[in-house]
Specification:
26 strands, 10 helices, five-stranded antiparallel β-sheet, signal, alpha+beta, VWFA domain-containing protein
Length: about 500
């Protein structure tokens, strides 16, 4: 147990009067003395070996002895006295009364310090225990206790009677706060069961999402190569074939996106719900909110898992719905080519700001392409909050900040979200798909971000504005999944 062992000693005591012993093993029995046998062990069961033990009597008697290598010790003490056992800085809270009677044996187990024995159980929503998950307890006194779950998905801590402890796991920094009730007993048993997918599963899903996105991107590139080589490039816009933003030259991409934009304008005149019906994750909410939130800066994750959505972002610029207003964008790739160990919260980097009208399309596109080219991929978490804070510096009065984010990537710097102080409108990418590892579940971190900033979540067919009004203990339902707001954080609830 980190930081605390050995703080609690189990003291197994056996007291026998000198007359009861019937022999003198190195100590001479006297009418006013009794023998005391003690066995002291650490919490892990190992002997409290070769250590000083002091028995202090209320009448002033002090007896000092040393434990052996087995943690055992025998002492001769005056009877008709009440003793406490002191092992270093630790004191047994249970008093030991040695009466002035022969032929009396005392047997019981005591503890050398008052403590809380706290067990944390970590399981997923299927009830399967999660091993190897890091658990941190933050005491209200400032101390930190850390360990990882065992094969049974459990971890136990020996804790002092501090006023409170905040429990944190990776990607959930505020699981629960426990406040031990001190009723004066030597020890207290406490347990908590936490149900969530776990950090390892979250990272596994993010990695799969990234791999699938890159595979789809590669397949799209091969398809475009085939169409262009066979002289069927005209089908790209007509059949709404995905155009990788970093495909071929900037001029070619601008030309093809322009043709797509014309097709979209025509479709929207016939059917205003066209984007929603075609599952356009980014375009559907942006189009739906084009008048309500006309002035905006669009902050976009352009890491590998988001390649499939970058086309919709630049298509929004090509559609040019707000003709006379410049559009602002900030693209981020989580640190350019930095290794994970070099990424620092708040200064990870990889941010690309640009702005302009339709005539500046090339500038916008080249900024995105540069950011994608400089992105190195790597670990799953992204520097969303750092990018949002940078975007805030470019906002004028009345501007809304939109975040286009990967629902399956953790937020690297969520701890900075309290610095935003502006509503964040979050468009989540990936929620629309259901597969063996996706179930239309919202990443709770983005719910927490929306709640903390007074923002909102925007899906293909739904705008969720009341997240910030959710109070402690209440539940919000999105895509048939329930998220319980507890301890200031949202948590997906297990389906019964």
């Amino acid at each position: 147990m980190k930081y605390i062992a050995p703080v609690i000693l189990f003291c197994i005591l056996n007291f026998t009067s000198s007359y009861g012993q019937g022999h003198t093993p190195g100590l001479s029995p006297e009418d006013t003395l009794s023998f005391i046998k003690m066995e002291l062990t650490n919490p892990d069961g190992t002997p409290y070996a070769n250590s000083l033990v002091v028995l202090k009597g209320e009448k002033g008697h002090w007896v000092k002895v040393m434990t052996g290598k087995d943690g055992r010790v025998k002492a001769k003490v005056p009877f008709d006295e009440i003793y406490t056992v002191h092992c270093g800085e630790h004191t047994c809270m249970r008093k030991i009364k040695v009466n002035a009677f022969p032929y009396v044996t005392y047997n019981y187990k005591a503890y050398t310090q008052r403590f809380i024995y706290f067990t944390f159980t970590y399981q997923n929503i299927n009830g399967e225990r999660l091993k190897g998950e890091e658990v941190v307890l933050h005491s209200s006194t400032g101390k930190t206790y850390m360990d990882s779950t065992n094969q049974e998905g459990q971890v136990s801590f020996y804790l002092p009677f501090d006023p409170s402890f905040r429990i944190a796991v990776k990607y959930h920094d505020n699981v629960k706060t426990i406040t031990p009730r001190d009723v004066g007993k030597e020890y207290k048993l406490m347990t908590t069961v936490f149900t969530w997918m776990g950090a390892r599963e979250k990272e596994r899903r993010a990695h799969i999402a990234d791999s699938l996105a890159r595979l789809a991107h590669l397949s799209a590139t091969e398809l475009l190569d085939s169409l262009v080589a066979s002289g069927k490039g005209g089908e790209i816009a007509e059949k709404d074939i995905y155009i990788p933003i970093n495909y071929d030259s900037t001029e070619w991409v601008i030309k093809m996106l322009g043709e797509k934009a014309k097709q979209y304008h025509s479709k929207l005149k016939e059917n205003p719900a066209f984007f929603e019906q075609k599952n356009k994750t980014v375009l559907a909410p942006l189009y739906r909110l084009r008048k309500k939130m006309a002035q905006k800066i669009i902050v976009t994750d352009i890491t590998g898992s988001m390649y499939g959505y970058t086309e919709e972002v630049v298509l929004w610029h090509a559609l040019n719905f707000m003709e006379n207003s410049p559009k602002k964008y900030l693209f981020f790739n989580d640190g350019d080519h930095k290794a994970t160990a070099q990424k620092t919260i708040g200064s990870t980097g990889g941010l690309y700001f640009c702005q302009g009208q339709i005539k500046d399309f090339k500038t916008i596109l080249n900024s995105m392409r540069k950011g994608m080219r400089n992105g190195g991929g790597g670990d799953g978490p992204e520097n969303d909050i750092e990018a949002l804070l940078a975007a805030k510096q470019h906002c004028n009065e009345g501007h809304e900040i939109f975040l286009i984010a990967d629902n399956y990537s953790p937020i690297r710097d969520l701890e900075l979200m309290e610095q935003l102080n502006v509503p964040i409108r979050i468009i989540l990418c990936g929620v629309e798909y259901k597969s063996c590892f996706r179930d239309h579940q919202i990443n709770e971190e983005y719910l927490n971000l929306a709640h903390a900033t007074g923002g909102s979540i925007h899906l293909i067919k739904e705008d969720i504005y009341h997240i910030a009004q959710i109070k402690e203990g209440e539940t919000i339902t999105i895509n048939k999944n329930d998220y319980h707001f507890v301890n200031g954080r949202f948590l997906l609830q297990k389906k019964m």
